[in-house]
Amino acid sequence: ATMATGALVLNGVVIISAIIGLLFGIFVTSPLTVGLCNYFIINADSKPSFKDAFSGFKVKYARNIGTLLLVGIKTVLWSILFIIPGIIKTYEYAIIPYILADNPEISTKEAFKKAKQMMKGNKWRLFKLEFSFIGWFVLCVLTLGIGTFFLIPYVNAANAEFYVELKNKQA
Prior knowledge:
Layout: H1 2-45, H2 55-58, H3 61-81, H4 83-93, H5 96-102, H6 108-119, H7 123-131, H8 134-142, H9 148-170
């Protein structure tokens, strides 16, 4: 009986941990992602402030959460349908956090539409950009992950520059 009780407690802990992780991802990670995108967009032209990284909590918090939750749901659904369309949609939606950060008044529907327009013909370019970091990620593994503290901001800055370039082409 004690082993069964222990298994039930362990299952409960796992379920509660999963729920807490999901809620953290939705309510903290989503606005933080938008804030970091804002930070790196500003960094492309000038010197950002540390508080710019948290702008996703201050500007349109609910929209940021809802939009990035919808991105996740749509990506999962496309991936369940077929893997290749899921990958294509992942690249199409990749700039949505940048669009949200750069356009505080944009709606979720408009952000998806703008991402689709901007990424038309550019998904392969983004794939090649991200693939170019593969060697650096291998080196990060060799440093037992310590190198990721340097690589992740570098990748984020490169992605922000990619977004800024696309935005400037649209204008």
